[in-house]
Each structure stands twice: as C-alpha cells, then as structure tokens.
C-alpha cells in the first residue's frame, strides 16, 4: 500500500486564529433522520444475518422526516398534520422466496428512535412511508438485490468490493471545541441538568465560535408548550437553564485549561413575546424537516476546520459502502498516527467502485511537522492494519446502538 504524505498541515491553536464548531443535538430533525436510517440499517442487517447468514444489500442514506403542521401557543398545541417518516433507497425485498419485513422494520426503527429521544407522545402523530427503488441493472449481477437463499455473502471478508467511488477524511487530535460542543449538548440533554426543568426538549443546538482567546457559546433550548402557561413561565424556565448551562461551560475542563473569555447566549431569537416552543421538544413538531447527511459528521460535530467530505454515514450498508467504512477507518487511522507519533494529522481515503475494499486507490496523510522515513514506514503499517480491520468495524457497527454512538462517537472506533 502506498501512502502519499505532506508536511504542510496547519491548524489553529487554542489561543490563535479562529475556529467554529456546531453540534446538532439528539432531538434535532437532522439528527433524528440519521438515527432512524442507522437504526433501520442495523435492524435490517441483523435480521438478514439471523435468517440467512448474510447482510442483504441495502442503501437507505436518504431517509427524510417531514415535520408536523401545528398550531403552538403557551400552554399547548394542536397537530393538524402528522410527522411523516420516509424511507428512500434501495432495499433487497426478498431472499429466495422469503420476503423481508422492510416496512415493519422501518416502522419499528422510527418508533424506537423517536420514542426514546423525544418521548412517546409523538408516536400518536406519526406515519411512515417507504419508497424502495431496488431493481436489476447491468453494473451488478441480478442476485445483488435479488439473492437466492443459498447466497454466502457475510460481513466483509478479503474479497469484498467497494460499492462507491468516494473520498473520506478525518483528523486527529480533536480540536478542544469539538469535545466541548459534544459535552455541552450531552449535558443539556442529560438527566441531572433537566431535574426541575421538565419542559425542556431534546432539540438542542450548540454553536461555538472562538476568535483568538474569546469564545462565544450559543445554545438553542426548546421548551414544550404544554409545560409553560405563559411567557413569564417560559422566561423563568429558560433563565434557570441558562444559569445551569453557564455554570457547566465555565467549569468545563477545556474552558478552565484554555485562556478564553467565554460568553454564553441562549435562545437568541427570543425578543418581545417570542419563544422557542416546540411540540414534543423538537422543531420536527412544528414543521421543520430532517434529512440524512445534514447533521453531525462522524466525529459528532460540524467543524469549520479540519478536512471534511460530504459523505453521509447513516443508512449506508455496513458491509461494503466506503462512504461509511472509509470515513470511520480514516478516523481510526488518524487517531493511531497521533497516538504513535504525537503529531496532529489529517487522513484521506479514496475508494473506486469495484476495487477491493481493503485496498483504497489513494491514501493521503498530512502531518503538522516534517516526518522522517521511519515515520513514513510506521504510517504505512498503521494504514495496512487499520484497513485489515474493516470486517471488525462492520461488526462493531452492528453491535452498537446508533443512539449510544451519537452520544459518544468514539465508541465505534474501539476495536
């Protein structure tokens, strides 16, 4: 395996330059769409493994959640049109003569995610629709989406082929703002923070913008309309949430270690009688929509620095889709290079459709300092070892709950 490398990586330090990092919370419509796609893919894959011994081909990274049409006031809301969850993509319908329960698995995935994240109330205002576009084409054998019962494809082995032409990237170590954004959102959606704040929703967004040693923290905190009977009650709840969040941010180890002047803003759109009221605690309950790929990247944030591709992981086949596997493999490799050499770096992996999965067409590494020949050899060994572990990565993806992975993106990188 040939690794192309350069020594020109420059990244902002904790007190110079600038950086911007966003974290969409677990109840954000885009996050929910990602979670639904991943949960369906996981359930579908495990069903195939259990029934037939292999993962039937599927590709559902276009799940869409269409928000409810609602009237919202202090003290309550009325839903005029329910939330609609759409399954878009190619899904194997049957193996031999046995039909796969695609619609049932999708409904179960939607109810699992929405029920756990935003609560069971939303399930009374929900419908699901499937649009399956799987067919037969000349770039795959007919058995690709119409396998017989004696197919032997399993979690990828040495003969697995890449199912897309794509580039995927990652960097290490994480920027201090990356960890801070994840921790702030997880904390605000945690049990301890919400004690006494029963009306707070899960559709929390965190935006961090640092210029030199000044850090601006902006958080959007939704409130369930039935929990506050007036604007005064809403203001009191948001003020208490602000005080708790401000205390958490200022006491966070990252903030205490860095020379930052930190300022927190919450619900900045609130002016006059305006209020962020959201049925079910998510803007999905008042007409906003969620789409796979618009949420957080594999590392749990959306960052203005560090290499980033456009690949959406959620819903992609965990067996051979490089948009998922190479993104996570790049993250593993970047972490390992940093652990071995102590050097900040970026990794890029490129796949070509039909090539052997374990042999990318391009592996690129950028280092912050000039590397030695010994460094280069070590990086090639790490790259080969990481790509050899793709089957273990696929298994890891099927083991973990997507919600657990959302809260701690590092879980999937453990071997």
Report what the structure shows:
33% of the residues lie in helices and 22% in strands. With 415 residues, the chain is an alpha+beta fold. Among the domains are: 4-15 and 164-174 and 295-413, S-adenosylmethionine synthetase, C-terminal domain (GMP Synthetase, Chain A, domain 3); 29-137, GMP Synthetase, Chain A, domain 3 (2-Layer Sandwich). The strands form 5 sheets. Strands 14-13-12-2-16 form a 5-stranded mixed beta sheet, with helices on one face. Strands 3, 4, 7, 10 and 15 form a 5-stranded mixed beta sheet that branches. Strand 8 and strand 9 form a beta hairpin. It starts with a strand and ends in an 8-residue tail after the last helix. 46% of the residues are buried. Mean pLDDT is 92; it is low at 154-158.
Which helices and strands occur, and which strands form pairs?
Blueprint: E1 4-6, E2 18-24, H1 29-52, E3 58-59, E4 64-66, E5 69-73, E6 76-81, E7 83-91, E8 94-95, E9 98-99, H2 102-118, E10 126-132, E11 166-172, H3 176-188, H4 191-194, E12 205-211, E13 214-220, H5 231-251, H6 253-257, E14 261-266, E15 290-291, E16 302-303, H7 322-341, E17 345-351, E18 362-367, H8 373-388, H9 390-399, H10 402-407
Parallel strand pairs: 1-18, 7-10, 13-14
Antiparallel strand pairs: 2-12, 2-16, 3-7, 4-7, 4-15, 5-6, 8-9, 11-17, 12-13, 17-18
In short:
With about 425 residues, the protein is α+β, with helices and mostly antiparallel strands. About 35% of the residues lie in helices and about 20% in strands. Mean pLDDT is about 90; it is low at about 155-160.
Key terms for this structure?
alpha+beta; 415 residues; 5-stranded mixed beta sheet; 33% helix; GMP Synthetase, Chain A, domain 3; single chain; 10 helices; 18 strands
